Amino acid sequence: MTKSSKFQFGKAFEELEKMTEAFENDHLDLDESLEKFERGLVLANQLKAKLREVEQRVEVIKKKFSTGATPPDVDETEK
After folding, report:
1. C-alpha to C-alpha distance for 52 and 28, rounded to whole angstroms
2. Which one of 4, 46, 59, 73 counts the least CB within 10 Å of its CB?
3. pLDDT, tens digit, for every residue of 33-77?
4. In the Cβ-directed half-sphere of 78, how many Cα atoms lie within 13 Å?
């Protein structure tokens, strides 16, 4: 994955799910299994990294709004 390509969490997760199903349901040969296993580990690491990034952003947002100020109610801002 290059820096110019954008990681798509949903597609990576879907690919990993399909690989899991293939391991559970298909009779894969050894070489194909090894390739899928390696690709699955790469995807799992990318997904974990993205989740960590999102968790960090959530923490920053929470701190931003925990300064004691009450954010305006959504209904009030639409009026």
Report:
1. 32
2. 4
3. 999 999 999 999 999 999 999 999 999 999 988 876 555 665 555
4. 3
